[in-house]
Amino acid sequence: VYSNSQQKFVSIPEICNPGESTLIEFLEILKQGYGFLEMHNNNDNDQAPQNLQLYTDFGRYMLLFGVIEDEEYEVKTLCNPLAPATLIDMHGEPFPARAIVNDFQPIAAACLEFLRTGNVVGVLLI
C-alpha cells in the first residue's frame, strides 16, 4: 500500500519475480509518497539477506534486511552515521534516526541489487 501526496491510498499488487523495469516503476511511486515494499529471497544461502523491506515516508526512507547469522534471524538496517543517536517516527513506530536516510539513490541501488543477485553488498549495515 502506498499513499501519494494527496493522501490517497493505493494498493500495489503482490508480484512474483518482477523484472527490473517493474521494480523501478514501483520504486518511483514509493519515492514520492508513503508506503512499504517487501522483497523475499528464495535461495538457500544463509549468508544473504532473506528479505528486504523498504519503508518510505515522503522523502524519508528506511531499509531493513532480514539476515540469518549464527543460526539466528537478525534485522539489520542501512546506516546513516551522520544522524543523531535518537529515535524518530517512521510509519507510527520509533526507529533509530541512523536507520533513516533522505537519499533515495542508495535505496534504489540496494533494491535492484537484491532483485538481481539475492544479496546486498557494500551497504553499511547496523
Helices and strands, with pairings:
Layout (H helix, E strand, L loop, with lengths): L1 E2 L5 E2 L9 H13 L1 E7 L8 E9 L3 E9 L2 E6 L9 E4 L2 E4 L3 E2 L2 H14 L9
Antiparallel strand pairs: 1-2, 1-3, 3-4, 4-5, 5-6, 5-9, 7-8
Helix pairs in contact: 1-2
Question: How would you describe this structure to a colleague?
Answer:
The protein is an alpha+beta fold and 126 residues long. Helices cover 21% and strands 36% of the residues. Strands 1, 2, 3, 4, 5, 6 and 9 form a seven-stranded antiparallel sheet that branches. It has a two-stranded antiparallel sheet with strand order 7-8. The two termini are 27 Å apart.
Profile the largest sheet. Answer: 7 strands, antiparallel
- Sketch the topology as an H/E string, one letter per element: EEHEEEEEEEH
Helix amount: 10-25%
- Amino-to-carboxy terminus distance: 27 Å
| Alpha-beta content class | alpha+beta
Rg is 14 Å
What's the β-strand tally?
9
Portion of residues in beta strands equals 35-45%
Q: What gross morphology would you assign?
A: globular
Q: Determine the number of helices (DSSP H or I, runs of at least 4 residues).
A: 2
Assembly category = single chain
Q: Return residue spans where pLDDT drops below 50 for at least 5 consecutive residues.
A: none
Query: Averaged pLDDT, please?
Result: 83
